[in-house]
Amino acid sequence: MSQRERQKAESRQRIVRSAVNLLRERGLADVSVSEVMAGAGLTVGGFYAHFPSKGRLAEEAVRQAMLDRREQFLDRPDEDGWRLRLQSAMQGYFSERHRDDVRHRCPMPMAAIDAARDGSAATVFTEEMAEMAKAFEAGADPTGPRAPRDAALGSLALMVGGMILAHATRGTPLSGEFLESVSRFGAAAVEDLEEQV
């Protein structure tokens, strides 16, 4: 790879990372190309050398953000079975620290809102949520005990919906109540499903 090709690849990655950061913070539907490029430390004029449209960038940013999140989920101990794996994921997810950490918060809530509101990267979001569901089912060890599909999908839905409500009510006592209640409810639901299996 030539130096010019390497620089172009690095610039493209900076653009994607800037878009991922904005996705986590507030979604991409109302973000301008100039905001993305400013976040990457690049000029607006260079955007179209990397992407044919903002929509294509949104797709790549959603794919990258969801992959990052999936790898983060899979990077947890897996030997204690699927119930504890899902309960651990929810416990860490429903915290004020995670809710308020703009740079590291989960991209799923904002990506879901974008996909539902204007179809932004909806196909990629659906594909990546399917992959996330598989990760929730199998964990890091595909030979280990699998979570029931209901537990995987239910946990994901609870996490995304619960965090949307916690974000929407942030700054009020209700936000903290959502975090605590949804975490407890999710843990109990997973335990109940384990007893039914």
Please explain how this structure is put together:
- With 197 residues, the chain is an all-alpha fold.
- It has a single domain, classed as Tetracycline Repressor, domain 2.
- Helix content is 72%, strand content 0%.
- The protein has 9 helices and no strands.
- The chain has helices at 3-26, 33-40, 54-74, 82-93, 96-100, 108-118, 122-138, 149-168, 173-196.
- Helix 1 packs across helix 2 (33-40), helix 3 (54-74) runs parallel beside helix 7 and helix 7 packs across helix 8.
- The radius of gyration is 18 Å and the shape is globular.
- The termini are far apart.
Describe the SSE topology.
Elements: H1 3-26, H2 33-40, H3 54-74, H4 82-93, H5 96-100, H6 108-118, H7 122-138, H8 149-168, H9 173-196
Helix pairs in contact: 1-2, 1-3, 1-6, 3-7, 4-9, 6-7, 6-8, 7-8, 8-9
